[in-house]
Amino acid sequence: MSSPDDDLDRTIVVPAAPRMFVRFGPNQLGRDYVVGDVHGQFELLDRLLRAVAFDQDFDRLFSLGDLIDRGPDSERLLRLFHTEPALYCIRGNHEALLLASRSNPVYRRVWERNGGDWADDLPEAQLAQLAWIIEQMPLAMELELGDGRCVGLVHAEVPPGTDWDTVRRVQAGPADQIDDQDSTLESSLLWGRRRVNALMLMAQNPEADEIDDDTRTRAIRAVTPVEGIDLVMVGHTIIPAHRPARAGNVMFLDTGAYKVDGRLTLAEPAANRYWQCDREGHLRTEPDGMPLPNAVPLREAYLRAPGVMA
Fold first, then answer.
1. Residue 122, pLDDT score
2. Which domains, from first to last, does the chain contain?
3. What percent of the chain stands above pLDDT 90?
4. Dihedral sign of CA atoms 49, 52, 53, 56 in order
5. Which among 143, 115, 120 is positioned nearest to 231, based on CA atoms?
6. What's the pLDDT at 218?
7. Can you give the pLDDT at residue 7?
């Protein structure tokens, strides 16, 4: 039996809270790749990595989140990105749903309806392990390229009007965080769609016909570049053309890997190139990749809105 003095000598070790923002210096030995929402499609990812001759001893792979759900290999991908030292992943909204489901049965049903039914038969201890893996995932990353440029990585979006320095200070939100209409920075990083919705609005209605001035003003502000960073790469919302798109300095890489007609996109930001693979395992690209798109030009019809500086 221990004495009271023994208790005084014991050191209580409190695990450090996972960092919600992680920065990576330039890769001096190999190449860096960024992949859009994989959604359980391990075979597509493997096909793309083989196509670019990915070398895990020198190269690095960064996932924009949503490794899980809607595909056959959710658990495999979570464990792979957790154990392989060359693979890194930020938290997506589907990973956030898994965490939320742990504390609220309503969120568990929401998760199941959105592709989380793969976990229905998992033993509790196994699911707890996967939740712990997700808790270690940051909400944002920054990647310095060899040419001095810096690339920000978030799952959904940096809110319009928020600079990258604010993202660097992001903290963990509640464990049961779900979509709350962008009331916090954490929510926007996981769920936001204002930027991509503005891009789609301008693509579908270039002349701003029957769009009021307030909507035009919000659309232009939503595609204004994120200050303090050269490029931001995001996933979360599927681009209908199944090709990457860019507004300002934000690159959208979710091209619907789990859809029958979708594709998984792998980008190399330093080389400004990307590769794609469809659900049949066919590469939809040139051997050396295809050029990442330039920013969509701002539409004159939208610039005429009151309060927008041309």
1. 96
2. 29-303 (3.60.21.10)
3. 75
4. negative
5. 143
6. 87
7. 42
pTM (two decimals): 0.92
d(CA 188, CA 177) in angstroms, rounded, equals: 11
Per-residue 3-state assignment (H helix, E strand, C coil) for 116-173: HHHHCCCCHHHHHHHHHHHHCCCCEEEEECCCCCEEEEECCCCCCCCCHHHHHCCCCC
Contact 43, 133 (CB under 8 A): no
Residues near 48 by beta carbon (within 8 Å), at least 6 away in sequence = 35, 264, 266, 275, 276, 277, 283
Query: Bridge partners of 24?
Result: 143
Render 175-229 in DSSP notation, one character per residue: TT----SS-SHHHHHHH--HHHHHHHHHHH-TT-TT--HHHHHHHHHHTSPPTT-
From the number of C-beta atoms within 10 Å of its C-beta (0-12, 13-18, 19+), residue 308 rates as middle
Tokens found for residue 90? 């930020």
- Looking from the CA of 189 toward its CB, the CA atoms found within 13 Å total 32
Structure tokens of 65?
């989140």
Using an 8 Å Cβ cutoff, are 166 and 185 in contact?
yes
Whether the predicted pLDDT of 4 surpasses 90? no
Q: And the tokens for 88?
A: 């890194």
Residue 1 has a pLDDT of 38
pLDDT on residue 10 = 43
Tell me which DSSP letter residue 71 carries.
S
Mean pLDDT of 261-284: 96
Long-range (24+ apart) CB contacts under 8 A made by 274-281 are 274/244, 275/48, 275/51, 275/52, 276/48, 276/242, 276/243, 277/44, 277/47, 277/48, 277/51, 278/44, 279/41, 279/44, 281/43, 281/44, 281/47
Structure tokens at 163: 């600079």
Kindly report, residue by residue over 212-257, the tens digit of the pLDDT: 888 888 888 889 999 999 999 999 999 999 999 999 999 999 999 9
